[in-house]
């Protein structure tokens, strides 16, 4: 496990029913919920979806610690987006706070709450997918179950494995530049040094990529038209249940929004 | 940097490619001119309001598909792996950008809501860069899709929607490279691809994330997104490709073979 996204799972139980499901099933749930929520901005639909997702969490194997560790970035996005909408969004209804362009009204406050809830509800299934899925399993599932072109899927997987190597090279690069006395000279010099290091890392990554390609080709990658798989990816009844759960969350949230009269199609 | 590669096996102005590209663009135009039926409503929205996105989708997807299928160029393993690595690098760029730069920068631009569009070019960079470096049909879409998937996997504010965004942004850049029949990869083509991706992300954003903007704001938003795409993704990628080629790192690729040696 080398990618930063894959460090030792903290607060994650990989034996939970949803965590064990085929990655394609989890992907389907994340897509279904995101699709249902992208159609509308309303607090009832997003809130209902978020509530149902939180209720489902115990079966997903992601505990409170794991959720906090992996989901904080969602909060970092959701709260500012909601605050900005409440302050600067289209004003409607009674003015609650403020004057001039920066006002919080009933309309903009509702929109702000809706946007925050929506970001969280769309992001949470993604957090679970990320926390409980090994990239190798995902690649196997994408190529075998979704029938995506296997050469592309496996190349992307191979490239992801370069993560850890590149982190080491970044350290070496920094040390080498330091030894040569580069990277001094105030804020401007530091920015210039950072750009130079990023570019050098990109060059190193591309050199590794061409060597990796030669290695893969010499072992027969991309040569045969019929590929066999060391790790078969299966989609069973339990996976279908997980997908059905995603359909249920999307449908129930939409139904709640329609029943409350706040659901409104966005693409207008 | 010369714009054509005599050693590549891309069909030079193959009449079938020209015909298919024209047909897809014409089909998109036809959808736009005829319009979707206004009498049919979907959840209270007349379908006619979806005409523009539908027309764009038909034209983009049709052109990219037709060109990708008809150009008999197959991807070599080195093309695949290089595009993947560029995608992963783009995903890392997104991860840093989304957390360290975007919240503060977009906050600073909040005085004029559509102004945040000047920043979207950064998210389009992998699409144009992948297209320019690998020079294969589908390279822009694939690179952007990998970058967006990595970004979603690391975790960001927009969750899984990032993947669909990556697909559409990549198609926007791919469309322009396909219209140029994958024969031109210079500065002009790069700016065009950046503009194409900018149109795609501008329309997506103003429909999905900023539906409450007035029509004037939406037009400004799309225009600024195009500008940002052309400058950051277009000019930036052209410059980066040239610099990478000069190091020799692209030697096994079409873009490295045609680079001038200094």
Summarize the structure.
Chain A has about 270 residues and is mostly helical. Chain A is about 70% helix and about 5% strand. Chain A has helices at about 15-20, 25-40, 45-60, 65-90, 105-130, 135-145, 150-160, 160-180, 185-220, 235-260, and strands spanning about 95-100, 100-105.
So, CATH architecture of chain B? Orthogonal Bundle
Look at the structure and give the CATH class of chain B.
Mainly Alpha
Strand content of chain B: under 5%
- Structural class, from helix and strand content of chain B? mainly alpha
Q: Kindly state the number of beta strands of chain A.
A: 2
Q: Span from first to last CA of chain B? A: 11 Å
What is the helix fraction of residues of chain A, given as a range?
55-70%
Helix/strand order of chain A, N-terminal first: HHHHEEHHHHHH
CATH topology of chain B: Arp2/3 complex 21 kDa subunit ARPC3
* Class per helix and strand makeup of chain A: mainly alpha
* Poorly predicted ranges of chain A: 1-7
Largest sheet of chain A: 2 strands, antiparallel
Description:
Chain A is mainly alpha-helical and 268 residues long. Chain A contains ten helices and two strands. Chain A has helices spanning 17-20, 23-38, 43-60, 64-88, 106-132, 135-144, 150-160, 162-179, 186-218, 237-260; strands at 95-99, 102-105. In chain A, strands 1-2 form a two-stranded antiparallel sheet. By secondary structure, chain B is mostly helical. Chain B is 69% helix and 2% strand. Chain B is globular, with a radius of gyration of 18 Å. Classes of the chains: A mainly alpha (268), B mainly alpha (262). The interface between A and B is large, with 61 and 53 residues.
């Amino acid at each position: 496990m080398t990618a930063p996204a894959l460090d030792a799972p903290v607060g994650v139980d990989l034996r939970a029913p949803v965590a064990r499901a085929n990655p394609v099933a989890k992907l389907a749930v994340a897509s279904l919920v995101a699709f249902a929520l992208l159609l509308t901005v309303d607090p009832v639909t997003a809130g209902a979806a978020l509530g149902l997702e939180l209720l489902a969490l115990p079966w997903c194997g992601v505990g409170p610690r794991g959720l906090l560790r992996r989901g904080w970035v969602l909060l970092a996005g959701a709260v500012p987006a909601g605050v900005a909408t409440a302050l600067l969004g289209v004003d409607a209804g009674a003015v609650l706070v403020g004057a001039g362009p920066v006002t919080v009204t009933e309309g903009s406050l509702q929109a702000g709450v809706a946007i925050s809830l929506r970001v969280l509800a769309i992001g949470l299934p993604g957090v679970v997918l990320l926390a409980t899925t090994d990239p190798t399993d995902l690649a196997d599932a994408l190529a075998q179950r979704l029938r995506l072109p296997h050469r592309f899927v496996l190349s992307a997987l191979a490239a992801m494995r370069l993560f850890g190597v590149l982190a080491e090279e970044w350290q070496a690069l920094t040390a080498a530049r330091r030894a040569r006395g580069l990277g001094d000279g105030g804020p401007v010099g530091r920015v210039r040094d950072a750009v130079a290091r990023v570019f050098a890392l990109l060059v190193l990554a591309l050199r590794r990529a061409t060597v990796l390609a030669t290695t893969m080709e010499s072992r027969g990658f991309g040569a045969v038209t019929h590929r066999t798989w060391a790790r078969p990816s299966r989609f069973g009844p339990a996976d279908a249940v997980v997908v059905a759960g995603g359909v249920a969350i999307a449908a129930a949230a939409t139904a709640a929004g329609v029943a409350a009269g706040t659901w409104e199609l966005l693409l207008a | 940097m010369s714009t054509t590669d005599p050693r590549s096996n891309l069909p030079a102005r193959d009449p079938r490619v020209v015909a298919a590209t024209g047909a897809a663009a014409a089909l998109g135009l036809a959808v736009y001119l005829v319009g979707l039926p206004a009498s049919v409503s979907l959840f209270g929205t007349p379908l006619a309001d979806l005409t523009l996105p539908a027309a764009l989708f038909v034209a983009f997807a049709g052109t990219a598909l037709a060109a990708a299928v008809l150009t008999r160029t197959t991807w070599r393993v080195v093309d695949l792996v290089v595009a993947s690595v560029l995608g992963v690098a783009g995903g890392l760029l997104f991860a840093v950008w989304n957390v360290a730069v975007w919240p503060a920068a977009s906050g600073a631009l909040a005085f004029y809501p559509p102004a945040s569009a000047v920043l979207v070019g950064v998210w389009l960079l992998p699409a144009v860069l992948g297209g320019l470096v690998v020079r294969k049909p589908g390279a822009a879409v694939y690179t952007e899709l990998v970058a967006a998937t990595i970004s979603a996997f690391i975790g960001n504010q927009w969750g899984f929607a990032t993947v669909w965004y990556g697909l559409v942004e990549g198609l926007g850049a791919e469309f322009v490279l396909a219209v140029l029949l994958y024969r031109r990869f210079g500065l002009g083509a790069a700016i065009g691809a950046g503009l194409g991706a900018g149109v795609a992300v501008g329309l997506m954003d103003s429909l999905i994330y900023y539906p409450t903007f007035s029509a004037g704001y939406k037009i400004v938003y799309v225009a600024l997104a195009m500008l940002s795409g052309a400058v950051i993704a277009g000019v930036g990628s052209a410059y980066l490709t040239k610099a990478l080629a000069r190091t020799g790192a692209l030697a096994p690729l079409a873009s490295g073979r045609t680079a001038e040696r200094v």
